[in-house]
Structures are given as structure tokens and as C-alpha cells.
Amino acid sequence: MRENEGQNPQISVVCPLFNEEGNVLDLHRKILKSLEEIGRPYEIIFINDGSTDKTEERMSTLAPLTSISFRKNFGQTAALDCGIKSATGDIIITLDGDMQNDPKDFARLIKKLEEGYDVVSGWRKNRQDPWSKRFISRGADFLRKFLIDDGIHDSGCTLKAYKKESFDGVDLYGEMHRFIPAILKIRGFKVTEIEVLHHPRASGMTKYTWTRTIKGFLDMTSVWFWKKYANRPLHLFGGAGVLLSLAGFALFATLIMLRFFYGVSLSDKIWPMVAIFMVLAGMQFFISGLLADIAVKNYYNGSRRHYLVKTIVKK
């Protein structure tokens, strides 16, 4: 019997799993040991992200545990979004299911969080990954700092601690889990980081592929857009449209002067077509800004759950 059995959880541990049958039992044991040492009421939430191995079967043997299973693989971001929305603790800790993150760091994350921060991100300073994965991550980190600058070294580390209220009104999609600190910082929450342990993968295969790099870049661009123009997309697209149209009209005026005052023939020149294209493209940008403005308003008013839950079992 747990010491805090029956109490409302203060800590919720959220962990997405995809084909981690070799890790799930040891992972649960280590999480449980770390939480028992902290000595506060807790809950553990595992999200089976459509695994095709025995992950779900092994989850069913574990307790205490809230097991959530998706109908198919929707991705790590969707799994984290579901787990975070299901969490009831005041503090939410997330980590990967590959056992490269170490639950021993939970207490340090919580201690730092209680110094007045809303988000504490893990920094895998001594990262135990193949050089190719580290090389790609370094490039992504450079681009991330240039576009969104969330003020931390290692946004890709899933081991993080959050105050639950940080996620009020937040929906995660695509590959957004890498940019949660940036998203929350944009919303005005205090973000910091601490160094955490990192271990080589002992079982299973990495889910990191080159396609995730491309998706991550596209989502990074989306975060940049939300940071700069979330409430005013018309300023971006409309401003570009106005400038492009003005440049087109200026080119038209120049061509008219050349034709009527200097007798320059334009019949064999491409510039009149360029001027027309610039004006039309400017109008298109302006209209896109209006449509984006409408889409943003619909985003804030609509329901955006993008995954299907098959079962939820609490033990």
C-alpha cells in the first residue's frame, strides 16, 4: 500500500510509449522508486501511441498506473498532449519511454520549479546519442535560437517539469513537443533549465528519422509565426502585399514615363508583365492575410483534438 494512497496527486508523470516493450517494466519501476522517495501524492500516466509490439500488454500488468492507448500511432506530440490533459497533479513531469531520461532527476526538477519558475527543462549536456543524431540536433538548435530563442540549450529533451496551469488553453500538434518551452514563454511563463542525466538506449530502436527533422523545421516556422504574428497575421501578409503592390505600381509608373517621355519601346520587354505580376501577387498576399486573420479567430474558438483514444485504465 502506498503511503499517499487515496490522496489527490500533486505530481503527474506523463510518458509516451511507442514499441517500447523492452523498457516499459523497468521504466515504471524506476519512476515509482523516484516518486516514492520524493514522498508526495502522485500519479503515473503511460500513453501507448499505437504500439505494434507487446507494450500495451506489459502496461496492463503495472500498478499504480493510468494506461491510455491510442487506436493507432499519432506521434509523440499527440501522446504528450493527451497525457497532459489527463493529468490531475499540480506539477507535470514528462519524459521519454526509451529510458534515456533518468527519473532520479525528478526531485531536482521539482526543486527548481518551486524557486518560482513555471517550466524547468532538462539539458542533456553530456548526451549519449550517435554523432549523426547529435549533429542534426545541433543544426536544429542553432535554427531554433535564431527563429524563436526560448532561452534554453536543449529544447528537444522531453524530461521537463511544468506547473499544470501553464497548459491552460494550449493544444499540441505536429512535432510541437520540441517547442513547448518556446510556446509557454511566448504566453508569458517563466522558463529555465537544469543539467540532467542521459543514458544510451538499452533496448528498442530510435524513432528519430530524417522526416521528423523536416516536420520539426516546419513546426518551428509555425512557432515563429505564432510568436510574431499570432494576433495580427494581417500585419505580415497584408504588409508584404501592400509593399509588393506599391513596388508593382512604381514599376508601372516608371515604364509609362519611359514609353511616353523617352519613346522607349516596351513591346519586346518583360517588365510590363513583371509589374502586373507584382500587383496581383500583392493582392493575393493581402487576401491571404485576411483569410489568416479569420483562421486565427476560428482557431481560438474551435475544438482541436486530433487523436483517438481507444482505452483508459486506472489501477
How many strand segments? 8
CATH topology of the largest domain, by name, is: Spore Coat Polysaccharide Biosynthesis Protein SpsA, Chain A
Proper CATH architecture of the largest domain: Alpha-Beta Complex
* Classification by helices and strands: alpha/beta
CATH class of the largest domain: Alpha Beta
CATH superfamily of the largest domain: Spore Coat Polysaccharide Biosynthesis Protein SpsA, Chain A
Strand residues, percent: 5-15%
Average pLDDT reading? 83
Q: What kind of sheet is the major sheet?
A: 8 strands, mixed
Question: What does it look like?
Answer:
The protein has about 325 residues and is of the alpha/beta class. The protein has 2 domains: about 10-230, Spore Coat Polysaccharide Biosynthesis Protein SpsA, Chain A; about 235-300. Helix content is about 45%, strand content about 15%. It is built from 9 helices and 8 strands. The protein has helices at about 25-40, 55-60, 75-85, 105-115, 130-145, 180-185, 210-230, 235-260, 270-300; strands spanning about 10-15, 40-50, 65-70, 90-95, 120-125, 160-165, 190-195, 310-315. β1, α1 (about 25-40) and β2 form a beta-alpha-beta unit. The model has no long low-confidence stretch (mean pLDDT about 85).
